[in-house]
Write a structure and sequence with these properties.
The chain is of the alpha/beta class. The chain contains twelve helices and nine strands. It has two domains: about 40 residues, no CATH class; about 230 residues, Alpha-Beta Complex (2-enoyl-CoA Hydratase, Chain A, domain 1), CATH 3.90.226.10. It is about 40% helix and about 15% strand. It has a seven-stranded mixed beta sheet, sandwiched between helices. The longest helix has 17 residues. The protein is globular and about 85 Å long.
Length: about 300
């Protein structure tokens, strides 16, 4: 074998071969079809720049954006029985749980943490839709209750970032029992005089909407989020009428009194901080004024401004 076979031909072959390009470098906007470079999307908190479409983000990433400097302490939650009903459909429930844990690096669909937001101590829980559709089971219910108990112990506001398809069918009645249990925990916050703010993200549906997600002191929602109990098609088939445009979207619910504010993801942290300071009756720092402008006549101050 000579140098042509050993060196030249392999180099020519590698030059002509099609190079593998990672599929996730460019992400398509579901609303407009626009292709966005993933680094640009990440830098913009996973909001598509032109269409303002809010992409789904993981629970831990949401908390990193929420807490100061992205630092928070995870709150340990009680252990529960893994598969109380020995449920099996096309696959065993324990296998589905194992896959979801490996995919998300979470114990269950709800992650609870505490930290500071603009200097104010807060406790927050976030549902990760990537974990079995953010479904509410025994472990998720225990996590929410433990988070609310921690808020009462530390006398902090409790923030709930909801994203769920509803109760977890694999746990049957045990899943549905988390609805009244979390409702009792919300009342515990009320009795302690602590703010409970719910942020409704896309989607928030089913039993979650019928319980703690609609029991907040203030309800915020991200733009375009799907919020409701039953699906639109089910409702249309039941009432035999065509539903209005944008039905069950956050803007529609705000206009009809179900949601207090629709808040952009970039403004969510500041909005929650301001609400908590108001509800906790804390003084918020006022902007620093330029004293030199105050000493000048009005005409000169306006000109210099």
């Amino acid at each position: 074998m000579n140098w042509i076979n050993n060196v030249v031909r392999p180099k020519i072959r590698s030059f002509l071969e099609k190079r593998e390009v990672p599929e996730n470098l460019w992400i398509k906007c579901p609303e407009t079809g626009e292709m966005v470079f993933h680094r640009d999307l990440e830098a913009n908190q996973w909001v598509v720049p032109n269409s303002n479409f809010h992409m789904r983000i993981s629970g831990k990433k949401r908390l990193e954006l929420f807490f100061d400097d992205g630092k928070f302490d995870e709150i340990e939650t009680p252990e529960v029985m893994t598969d109380p009903l020995k449920f099996r459909d096309q696959r065993r429930y324990v296998d589905r749980l194992k896959d979801a844990k490996a995919k998300t690096d979470l114990k269950d669909s709800v992650f609870v943490a505490k930290g500071d937001v603009n200097g104010l101590a807060m406790t927050a829980a976030v549902q990760d839709f990537a974990f079995m559709g953010g479904s509410l089971g025994m472990a998720a219910g225990e996590a929410i209750i433990r988070g609310m108990e921690t808020a009462v112990e530390n006398k902090t506001p409790f923030i709930m970032f909801a994203a769920s398809g509803g109760a977890r069918m694999q746990e049957g009645i045990l899943s549905l029992m988390q609805l009244p249990r979390t409702t009792v925990a919300v009342q515990m916050l009320r009795d302690a005089g602590l703010p409970y703010i719910v942020v409704l993200t896309n989607p928030t549906t089913g039993g979650v909407t019928a319980s703690y997600a609609m029991l907040g002191d203030v309800h915020l929602a991200e733009p375009g989020a799907l919020i409701g109990f039953a699906g639109q098609r089910v409702i249309e088939q039941t009432i035999r009428e065509k539903l209005p445009e944008g039905f069950q979207r956050s803007e529609y619910l705000r206009d009809h009194g179900m949601v207090d504010m629709v808040v952009h993801r970039h403004e969510m942290k500041e909005t929650i901080s301001r609400l908590c300071n108001l509800l906790m009756k804390r003084d918020t720092p006022l902007p620093v004024l330029d004293t030199a402008l105050l000493e000048k006549p009005a005409s000169e101050a306006a000109a210099s401004a």
